[in-house]
């Protein structure tokens, strides 16, 4: 592996770690829950992902919302 390739990989991984670290702060915001019910409404449920925080899934939630999946529920629970 060349030095340039190693450096690029380290920069990419460092950027991903920094992004996840910044998203962790957003985990302090309360989750939004809309209790409306109907047969044609589908809910996407997000269980916390990597590092045990719902904020790590915010990018995916944004993408799904842009694709029309507006009803989403995410939460965090203490892992043991």
Description:
The protein has one domain (3-75). 41% of the residues lie in helices and 10% in strands. It contains two helices and two strands; from the N terminus they run H-E-H-E. A two-stranded parallel ribbon has the order 1-2. The longest helix has 24 residues, at 3-26.
Q: Main traits of this protein?
A:
10% strand; 2 helices; 80 residues; mainly alpha
Write the layout of secondary structure elements.
Layout: H1 3-26, E1 44-47, H2 58-66, E2 72-75
Parallel strand pairs: 1-2
Please estimate the helix content: 40-55%
Q: Could you name the ranges where pLDDT drops below 50 across 5 or more consecutive residues?
A: none
As laid out across the biggest beta sheet, the strand order is 1-2
By DSSP (H or I, 4+ residues per run), the number of helices equals 2
Average pLDDT taken over every residue: 81
Secondary structure tally: strands: 2
Largest sheet: 2 strands, parallel
List the secondary-structure elements in sequence, H or E. HEHE
In angstroms, what is the radius of gyration?
17 Å
Q: Please give the alpha-carbon distance between the first and last residues.
A: 39 Å
Gross geometry: elongated
Structural class: mainly alpha
State the gist of this model.
The protein is mainly alpha-helical. The protein is 41% helix and 10% strand.
